Amino acid sequence: MKETNFTIIVEFSLSGLTDRPDLRFILFPIFLAIYLFTLLGNSLLFITIKVDVRLHTPMYFFLSNLSFLDICYTSVTVPKMLETFLFDKTTISFSNCVTQMFCYLTLVATEVLLLAVMAYDRYVAICFPLRYQLIMSRKVCIQLAVAMWSMGFLDSVLHTTLTFQLPFCGSLKIDHYFCDIPPLLKLACVDTSVNQLVLMLAGCAMSLGSFLLTLISYTLIIATIVRMRSSEGKHKAFSTCASHLFTVTLFFGTIFFMYLRPSTSYTMKRDRVVSVFYTIIIPMLNPIIYSFRNKDVKGAMKKLLQTCLGLT
Fold this sequence. Notes:
Oligomer: single chain
Helix content: over 70%
Shape: globular
CATH superfamily: Rhodopsin 7-helix transmembrane proteins
CATH topology: Rhopdopsin 7-helix transmembrane proteins
Number of strands: 5
């Protein structure tokens, strides 16, 4: 497997979420249940939006993109985690590691941009209600979706290429439960300052840019809501934004903590736990957040389930 001082990579080894073998059989059913609930909840939300014509609006178009992202998100990382819990199989081939990291980074970057686009959509809907359909036309929505997926793809190509062109040596044990940039950089045999700089700059440009756009959108939204005379109008406007604002706070908070800080502050045991929130917990919560507080979605879901069960 080794030639000279460097390693011809055949496979890596993942440390998993926990170092304690006795916890694996306890964690397996917990994360399996979370994974199945995430798939079911997001699939139901996605299908409901697609089949109910009343939900064919820009807001729900982007929400269906979020549901699809969350399905893919968890499916990239959780199955391997479950395999590690159940069979103690910690190895992952080089090609699978590259694929996992590429898909994961594409989805992360796309979701960062999507949350900003969703905030902009709410800004237009509340601040320019009479021009909403014109500004957020179907053509514009599709263009925004293509743009954010394309930018997510390009961002992933950049980081994946820079990471896997590095020479790796040592034990090749990735101190994480999936292939991510920070733990892989720790395995490199050369200086990774360029990779860390690119990660910081690209993260700032995309994550902070999206966060600032979201912040500006909600600042203008709140200013508009405060000026509303109708208390019913205020309540309706706040209710349509509250779900998204909660998701934004959770997602951006953990993303900033993970990637927009010096590499010297990485503590892998702590970071593994933090990453669970945005890779597993938030995708599980999203269908709950966006459906339980939304009468239109709840009504459409109820109708869809009744139709599928033959109750109507």
